[in-house]
Amino acid sequence: YVSGLGEGKAMYLLFVKAETLTNSGIPVRSVLTSYYKSPHFLHRKHDLYNNYTSPDEVILCPDSQQSMYCQLLCGLVERQHVLRLGAVFASAFLRSISFLEQHWCDLVNDIRIGKLNSNVTNTECRLAMEGFLALPNPELADELEEICGHGPWKGILGRLWPNVKYIEAVLTGTMAQYIPMLEFYSGGRIPLVCTMYASSESYFGVNLRPLCKPTDVSYTILPNMAYFEFIPLEDGLRVTDDEEVVGNDKLVSLVDVKVGCYYELVVTTFSGLYRYRVGDVLQVTGFYNRVPQFKFICRRNVILSIDTDKTNEEDLHNSVTRAKKILEDRNHILLEYTSYPDTSTVPGHYVLFWEIKSTCEGVKPLDPQLLESCCISVEESLDYIYRRCRAHDKSVGPLEIRVVEAGAFDALMDLLVSQGSSINQYKTPRCIESGLALKLLNSKVTASFFSPRDPEWTV
Ligand code: AMP
């Protein structure tokens, strides 16, 4: 689809995640970390079409800030040769561009004087970077300074990397929330390409029309990757809950799915998962030969996700239930809550809207420390991946509680009922999407509080 890709390089920003050991000493790693550390990746043959600007040593650096700094530096030094930009997930790519926005002065200075910033302390990174900064390069530094320091950041990607042909990242599912920001930095002129649908359990599918719009992406299942079966979702999007046992007779095989219908994905993998419910909801859009093609609809139950974190309603509810005890000990009760993933800043963060009532006489202002303790309590109860994203990867920002005025949730109900919700069966949505509901709640915010520190997280 894109010619000439073998004549240049890809600035793909790839990162390893922190890992841990089981009691018997087996490493527990995310699938991509495992891949980057494997001989398949490290001893790969030279391939003109997969020539990355980032050296392997830099990709493998356990400190994501140092890794990001060095990877951006390599990409800037090689800016005329870079034909593709990307990362696995759109969130990681944007985080790196925002990092560039904050650190471009240091990066330009390193290029100008031909010396790596002393904040990069990882020995392997320093060694790997020697070749990139062998000599001072004031001409390149002047060009970069002109672009980063004197022009707008809208459309900057095309100016920094003038030969870039596309940007690649996962842009479907929860990652779709990052498309507007990517369009801002690309100026809407660089195609956004989303090629793969995969997971820790198995590789699933590829997009055979890589230049289509991100909203039109369908994945063609690769039938040799695992044994694929599907639970039909009979009422359109009604999804069976995790605990519900699905009879084997309900499962539909790969060749029997029907165009337009929704299914939950079930895999049996070569590594031994048997009829495992991945949790993804897919809709059939067509067939390639006899293989079905699917649109990714959503991850079952996930209501909040900024990066690789996936928080479901139950996790959120349990965390809020724990935190609200702190309020109750101080004569306040939590009347209602909902949440929202705020990605208007990078990194994005979870926002909770809380309506609080005092059980004491008289109106006293809320103690900021009390609400900050609630923020941290919610975060401490969220799962390992969330806490790793917050404390280690820094890919999720501090959680925020926005306190709303009395009656805000009644107003929310009125709005949703006026939009068609049944008044009898109305339940406060535990997550709201952008639009009128968000606007309404934001207009009722009386105070906002952030977690004062990272949640506990240990490898
Ligand atoms: P993990 O469990 O961390 O391996 O993440 C795998 C999950 O990420 C999948 O089951 C999907 O929910 C999500 N995912 C992976 N690729 C895509 C994609 N191309 N579009 C939307 N969601 C994706």
Automatic annotation (TrEMBL):
GO cellular component terms listed in the entry, alphabetical order: cytoplasm
Domain GH3 C-terminal: residue ranges: 314-434
Entry keyword set: Ligase
The keyword Ligase is assigned to this record: yes
Domain (GH3 middle): residue spans on this chain: 219-299
GO terms for MF: acid-amino acid ligase activity
Homology family: Belongs to the IAA-amido conjugating enzyme family.
PANTHER family reported in the protein's UniProt record: GH3 DOMAIN-CONTAINING PROTEIN, INDOLE-3-ACETIC ACID-AMIDO SYNTHETASE GH3.9-RELATED
Descriptive protein name: Indole-3-acetic acid-amido synthetase GH3.9
